[in-house]
């Protein structure tokens, strides 16, 4: 005759073995929904209100972070307006992986006459189509004096 302990062990052991032989439960992961976004971090050079001399050439630099989950490739900052200050129509960006920040520099030539120079820029694709449409443009805002 077996004691109560032997009967208990005999009854529990098969269940323990059965529990460890089950296959692990897996949950398929859904790919993240593409989310394209940016965050303006700072004016690296020539913050708003800076003063430049008439005819002066200077490099305006912004720092922008890719805060979405979509890599930036073949993207540009495209000038949205004309002003007496001169700058290229568009400047290349990237490539920039999600979470990474990038410094974007535009060469600008101040007007020959005193006044305010404000140039707006939006992110576009290689064909000039706007990206991040809900975002306000970044801009250069200097005084020529």
UniProtKB/TrEMBL annotation:
Highest taxon of source: Bacteria
Any one Gene Ontology BP term: carbohydrate metabolic process
Q: Where is the Nbr1 FW domain?
A: 45-130
Fetch the CDD domains from UniProt: NBR1_like
Q: Which InterPro entries match?
A: Ig-like_fold (IPR013783), Nbr1_FW (IPR032350)
Could you identify this protein by its name? Nbr1 FW domain-containing protein
Organism, as annotated: [Actinomadura] parvosata subsp. kistnae
């Amino acid at each position: 005759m077996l004691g109560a302990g032997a009967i208990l062990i005999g009854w529990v052991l098969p269940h323990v073995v059965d529990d460890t032989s089950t296959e692990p439960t897996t949950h398929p992961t859904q790919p993240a929904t593409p989310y394209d976004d940016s965050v303006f971090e700072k004016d690296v050079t020539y913050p708003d209100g800076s003063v430049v001399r008439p005819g002066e050439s200077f490099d305006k630099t912004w720092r922008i972070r890719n805060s979405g989950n979509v890599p930036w490739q073949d993207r540009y900052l495209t000038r949205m307006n004309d002003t007496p200050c001169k700058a290229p129509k568009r400047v290349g960006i990237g490539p920039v992986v999600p979470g990474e920040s990038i410094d974007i520099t535009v060469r600008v030539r101040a007007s020959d006459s005193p006044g305010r120079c404000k140039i707006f820029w939006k992110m576009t694709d290689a064909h000039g189509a706007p990206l991040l449409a809900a975002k306000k443009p970044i801009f250069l805002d200097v005084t020529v004096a």
